[in-house]
Amino acid sequence: MARVKDFKRIPYGMAEIFNPRAKNGMSSRDAFDERKKYKNVPYFIDLPDPLKSWYNKLYFGRVDMIQNGVIIKKNTSNLKQIKTDSGNVFVLNFVADAFEDLNNHLRRVIDAGYITSDSVYAQLDPIAGLVDYVPSMRNIHSGWQTRFAARLNSKRELTNRVRDLKSYIAELFSYMDAGVNYMPLTLTGYVVSNYSSPMISGLSFELQTDNYGTDAIKFTKYILDPNFRYFVKAARKYGFYVDRNGPWKITADPLSTPMLNYMSEYVNISPTFPGASFFTHYYHRTYTQDYAELKKTLRLMYNQYATDFPRITIETTRSTRCFEGAQEEVKFRGTATEGAADALGESYWMDVYFKIRLKEAALTMSDYENKYNMALQIKKTYDLERALRYINNEIKPYLYDLRLEGKPLTEARGSVKIGSVRDT
Questions:
Q1: Cα(228)–Cα(207) distance, rounded to whole angstroms?
Q2: Which of 38, 154, 239, 356 has its CA 20 to 30 A from that of 255?
């Protein structure tokens, strides 16, 4: 690892440097201080840069070069299997090829005696690769449905207002405004949130199962490993980053020269815009799927509520010569068909989608009506896809709230504009 003299300029004692203490369960203040120490100590000095997955690379593999949320295309020809002792692990095809070559390289140098076989980096046997995002999204939507149903059923006046899908969504907006549930509803909101796993990109391997929240393990088991420094260099030679916040995880840098060489076996890469070739071939932009998915999600949420709680009990009063007082009238809410949802119209659903995206981004637009009307005009002049791209462009620059242990990673407060990210 790094030489002692390399740590002289770091404002921590050697005992602190060699004993990182941060772990989950500490007080917020202690955790922040300890994580800051681990972040600042140059454990990778004189080594290729690691992937700083808790800092400036938080959404690496989940956004493209102009910050569109992306999700892997469900095309099996784009994936390749790595056979491991723990089962079959899948990643993008060119990533698998690079990994196999890296593993073979490590075997050769171990056999030649250049590095030791007594190391966690000697025989790479991944335990995880690509993770399917769909089950996670379903759990989030189920959580939304359950929590919102509890909210509606907490007061008769609330549940009575829900007669159909449209009134259900109206109450949903009131619930979101209350700020008691920050789970995402759209695919874009999910991908650029802490609810999604970095492993959904198909770019990463996990080699061990250790806890990302415990810095001591990162240092004693991995950074002090006799092969650590060689492994970091070798991984970069084959186009991988080692994750600073989990040195048992490696992630492909798809636009590095080694990875582009591997990728060229599968993709016709533009020499001018290799990134565009990569993202177009392997990923969907999430905003292109948001609209239809959100419409389906909200309809299914409402239908579950209507099925679980079909009765609407309304208290009425009447006065006749025979009877005076209150009585209850019972009505029943029915489920919504796909056709009934479509009948609400694209203008309605665009408004719903735009507003939910804004709420997910914790963003308020003072000129919302102008923006919404512009989206409608674009849809009328061109098509729905361009209108959705416009909405995405209006929200995307302010989308990310990059925080670590409750501290902003930029000087700005509130929504942060992240630069030139507009699709044309």
A1: 13
A2: 38
In sequence order, which residues have a C-beta less than 8 Å from that of residue 201 and are 6 or more positions away?
60, 61, 62, 72, 130, 251
- 263 neighbors 253 (Cβ within 8 angstroms): no
Residue 152: name the closest of 328, 362, 312, 299 by CA: 312
3-state DSSP of 148-190: HHHHHHCCHHHHHHCCCHHHHHHHHHHHHHCCCCCCCCCHHHH
> At residue 400, does pLDDT exceed 60?
no
CATH topology of domain 50-131+197-266: Muramoyl-pentapeptide Carboxypeptidase; domain 2 (3.30.1380)
Each residue of 340-366: pLDDT tens digit?
A: 999 999 999 999 999 999 999 888 899
Q: Which helix (H) or strand (E) holds 89?
A: strand 87-92
Amino acid letter, residue 38: Y
Q: Which tens digit of pLDDT belongs to each residue from 366-386?
A: 999 999 999 999 999 999 999
The three-class DSSP label of residue 318 is strand
C-alpha count within 13 angstroms, C-beta hemisphere, residue 411: 0
- Calpha distance 300→146 (Å, rounded): 12
What are the Cα distances from residue 99, in Å, to 115, 128, 241, 320, 358? 18, 13, 12, 83, 40
∠ at Cα 177 (176, 180), nearest 5°?
60
Predicted pLDDT of residue 390: 97
Confidence of residue 25 (pLDDT cuts 50, 70, 90): confident
At residue 237, the 3 state secondary structure works out as helix
- Strand, coil or helix: what is 362? coil
**Phi, psi of 43, rounded to the nearest 5 degrees:** -65, -20
Computed from CA positions of residues 210, 212, 50, 189, in that sequence, does the dihedral angle turn out positive or negative? positive
pLDDT for residue 406: 33
Amino acid (1-letter code) at residue 222? Y
Domain boundaries, the chain: 50-131+197-266, 134-195+287-396
Do you know the residue count of the chain? 424
Stronger pLDDT, 123 or 343, i.e. the higher one: 343
pLDDT at 187 over 80: yes
Q: What is the pLDDT averaged over residues 89-100?
A: 97
Q: Compute the distance between CA of residue 54 and CA of residue 245 in angstroms, rounded to an integer.
A: 7
pTM of the model: 0.85
DSSP designation for 86: T
